[in-house]
Amino acid sequence: MLKLIATYYAFDILLIVVAILFTWWRRKKRLRSNAQEPSEGFIKTDEISVDPTTGIKQQVWFDPHTGERHYKTLEASRTEDVKQDNS
Predict the structure, then answer these.
(1) Around Cβ 70, how many Cβ atoms within 10 Å?
(2) Fewest beta carbons within 10 Å, which of 1, 10, 17, 83?
(3) Is the pTM of this model over 0.85?
(4) Chain CA centroid to CA 47, Å
(5) Contact yes or no for 81/57 (Cβ under 8 A)
């Protein structure tokens, strides 16, 4: 019985680690794709969004034909920079 419980907890821990690694990989991939220039037809807006999970500042681009938004990552952007700007 003890072996079954240990196997159950080991599987749960492994599942959590895999989920965390997958989330980290997807977020990194998304931020890299946001560093690229938006496609033709996008218009740069004055809006700058701060990603609440990473603290990275992103410039918002808007396509008026489709309503789609593109977030381009700004260089050297962290929440510390935002806090200094608001001080």
Answers:
(1) 18
(2) 1
(3) no
(4) 17
(5) yes
